[in-house]
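Duplicate of #3305? Posting structure anyway:
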């Protein structure tokens, strides 16, 4: 089941505000979706995800197929029961992970033959297999199997002819995914994925042919795969707003806070990215006033929290009152610097909570600005705040 309702639109951009109703709940859009590759958002308890305002999270079809396997997943009634998350889940198709195996896989019209990265077993992924796995996972949003068109391979930039060949196969796989999804009588929602590399006319052709298939929602894939930032932004500006206005639009694997704000302006409703969690584990913190490197020596004795305006558990503790508003319940930069230097696991747990809270709060502020008709003003203030520096 999927119902998408538009609530507001920004007159100065393609930004829009909506609600997305799925089998496991309602999602307010625009939304950021934390990535839980192996059935967990690394270092974060489900309760913490609830507390920070996560409405929908991701699971990884490929990795969950490898481990723990479909028998185990089926015994729990799907991914929700397995990881104890009662809100919506989106699962990717496994296409990107198979593509990233490089020499360990062979792509044909039928599907992808590859060696398991876990134990070396010879395996086969096809549109039909992907739909079967995702049906067992019982994810609210299922993604078609596609071929992720690379920007370049071993220094060779993908040509237009190569991008077209890949895009056309993804379209055929979209139809096969849709046919199998319906054959399985999956009660959830299947999204098609626009491909076409960095070629706008191929993106347009992919988009139009997917729209003819009438998916409940659409994603823009094949971005943030090694291309220069300006080319990624060019595709972001071209594709999302051309997708059907009455259906949700998902930009896959993007990106920085600035990318999210720009993506919303281009008409995107849904985002996911490992950046907030991965960067947190590597000591890079996102704040209202720019990025902070917690490993820098200047934080060794700093009493401030990561972000004085933040109300996450790392910055405001159980009180939930920001430092800027008089709260003193959070952890200092000095403490988090110390945890990082000592390799203590609490450090990346707290920084991950903060980064995810920052992303989710950013999306909440965007929704509030759209509700109030102040998105243009919000964008100006956001850019000025981020440029200020910590």
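Output from current build:
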């Amino acid at each position: 089941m999927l119902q998408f309702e538009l609530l507001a639109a920004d007159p100065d951009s393609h930004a829009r505000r909506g609600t997305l109703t799925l089998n496991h709940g309602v999602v307010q859009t625009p939304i950021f979706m934390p990535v839980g590759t192996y059935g967990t958002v690394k270092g974060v308890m489900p309760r913490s995800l609830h507390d920070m305002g996560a409405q929908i999270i991701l699971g990884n079809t490929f990795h969950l197929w490898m481990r723990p396997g479909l028998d185990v997943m089926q015994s729990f009634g799907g991914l929700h029961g397995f990881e104890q998350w009662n809100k919506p889940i989106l699962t990717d198709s496994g296409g990107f992970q198979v593509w990233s195996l490089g020499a360990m896989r062979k792509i044909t019209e039928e599907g992808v033959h590859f060696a398991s990265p876990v134990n070396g077993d010879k395996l086969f992924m096809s549109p039909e297999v992907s739909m079967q796995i995702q049906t067992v996972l019982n994810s609210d949003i299922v993604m078609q199997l596609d071929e992720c068109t690379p920007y370049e391979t071993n220094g060779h930039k993908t040509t237009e002819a190569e991008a077209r060949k890949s895009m056309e196969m993804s379209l055929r796989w979209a139809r096969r995914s849709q046919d199998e999804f319906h054959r399985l009588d999956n009660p959830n929602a299947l999204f098609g994925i626009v491909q076409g590399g960095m070629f706008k006319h191929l993106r347009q052709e992919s988009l139009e042919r997917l729209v003819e298939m009438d998916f409940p929602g659409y994603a823009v894939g094949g971005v943030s795969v090694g291309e220069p930032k300006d080319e990624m932004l060019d595709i972001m500006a071209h594709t999302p707003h051309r997708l059907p206005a009455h259906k949700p639009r998902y930009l896959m694997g993007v990106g920085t806070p600035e990318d999210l704000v720009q993506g919303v302006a281009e008409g995107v409703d849904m985002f996911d990215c490992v950046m907030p969690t991965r960067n947190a584990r590597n000591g890079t913190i996102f704040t209202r006033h720019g990025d902070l490197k917690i490993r820098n020596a200047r934080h060794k004795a700093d009493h401030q929290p990561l972000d004085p305006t933040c109300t996450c558990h790392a910055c405001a503790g159980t009180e939930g009152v920001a430092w800027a508003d008089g709260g003193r319940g959070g952890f200092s930069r000095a403490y988090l610097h110390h945890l990082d230097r000592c390799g203590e696991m609490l450090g990346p747990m707290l920084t991950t909570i903060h980064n995810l809270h920052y992303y989710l709060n950013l999306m909440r502020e965007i929704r509030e600005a759209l509700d109030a008709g102040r998105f243009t003003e919000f964008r100006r203030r956001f850019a000025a705040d981020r440029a200020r520096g910590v």
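Confirmed duplicate; merging threads. The domain at 3-272 is CATH 3.20.20.105 (TIM Barrel). The mean pLDDT is 96.
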